[in-house]
Amino acid sequence: MIGLVILVLGITGPFGTYGLGPWSDRLAYWLRTLAAGYVLYRPALWLAERLARRHGIGLPAAWAIAIGAVTLPMTLWLWYFGPEIDPSRRLPRGGEFLETYLQILVIAVLAIGGLGLVRARLTEAPAPARQGDDAGIGEMLAARLPRHLGRDVQALRMEDHYVRVYTPQGEALLLMRMSDAVRDVRCIDGAQVHRSWWIARAAIDRIEGGGRQLRLRLVNGLEVPVARRRLAELKAQRWL
Questions:
Q1: pTM of whole model > 0.70?
Q2: Are 116 and 63 a contacting pair, CB within 8 Å?
């Protein structure tokens, strides 16, 4: 990805770099510039994130401080290794330094801010399905479940070729396979704790017993057995 960005910058020559000469010179400039930026800004942003979490500082504020601080050495680096490499160049005066600093600061804020938004979008958890409408259950279960029972499924219980569905408004016995019913509630935070039982995590009131006699007491008063082979999985998911 970064290689593609360098290639595009080298060919297009933005920010006045098109006049540096052939595209190979522009490519070399952007290559060393972005490499230096990564070496300077990446550790600073990493440290800012850690300090923000430790001291309760907002991440945007921590990033702003880090960017402002690191732009100081980045300004000096570009002063000597910018479009023309000249380590013997004199130190920049106040106005010269400030002008270069502000230019780099604007570019850094735009670039890092954009990358931060992209990262936030990529790592953003999907919103949980609402259990109060048909979006929380599949079409087969929604078509069979009486409307007056709502769609907030608390538990499923297999009874021969039927499935008993429990909601806060009551229960209904539906002619369907347990596997189909469990598939239709996959958008609800729940688990099949027993061959004959599926329950929603939000429906658990308390845990009773232990070992082979472990049972889950639901908010509607139901006692649901937990199969031994499900214990490890439920513990890993922090149900128990």
A1: no
A2: yes
